[in-house]
Amino acid sequence: MNAPFPSARLGSGLVFTSGLASIDPATMTPKHTEFADQLEDVLHQLDSALIGAGSSRERTLKIDCYLADRRWFPAWNAAFAAFFGATAPARTTTVTTLPIDGLLIEIQAVAVAG
């Protein structure tokens, strides 16, 4: 079973990503159990989605992050700073229940296209 949505869409000169999460599309279960592994996978997916849509992390304007538990916030914060560096976009982080058991993080982004 594949997700019924694209990883990113273009509109009005912007790239909008879908919610990106460390999920095995064949089983719709998390690929990893550890937060660090899910985070690494999600950031890799973000790079791929942005590049595939003609953008990049440096052109990202806004990130929305959803965490399953607030204890993951320090790790997310450190990874965000390292991943984006001086080109860090605006950001919102929300602690919430995620749609798949064992899922610890999901992100979505808006970036300038090509």
What can you see in these coordinates?
It comes from Nocardia arthritidis. One of its GO terms (molecular function) is deaminase activity. InterPro entries: RutC-like_sf, YjgF/YER057c/UK114. With about 110 residues, the chain is of the alpha+beta class. The chain has a single domain (about 10-110), classed as 60s Ribosomal Protein L30, Chain: A (2-Layer Sandwich). It is about 25% helix and about 30% strand. Strands 1, 2, 3, 6, 7 and 8 form a six-stranded mixed β-sheet that branches. A two-stranded antiparallel ribbon has the order 4-5. It is globular. About 25% of the residues are buried. The mean pLDDT is about 95.
Short description:
26% of the residues lie in helices and 32% in strands. With 114 residues, it is α+β, with helices and mostly antiparallel strands. Strands 1, 2, 3, 6, 7 and 8 form a 6-stranded mixed β-sheet that branches. The chain has a two-stranded antiparallel sheet with strand order 4-5.
**Total number of domains:** 1
Give me the count of strands: 8
How would a textbook summarize the main sheet? 6 strands, mixed
Radius of gyration: 13 Å
- Sequence stretches where pLDDT stays below 50 over 5 or more residues: none
Could you name the CATH homologous superfamily?
RutC-like
Assign the structural class, choosing from mainly alpha, mainly beta, alpha/beta, alpha+beta, or little secondary structure: alpha+beta
CATH architecture call? 2-Layer Sandwich
The level-1 CATH class: Alpha Beta
Number of H/I helices: 2
Judging from the principal axes of the Cα atoms, what is the shape?
globular
Mean pLDDT: 94
Protein name: RidA family protein
GO molecular function: deaminase activity
Family: Belongs to the RutC family.
InterPro entries: RutC-like_sf, YjgF/YER057c/UK114
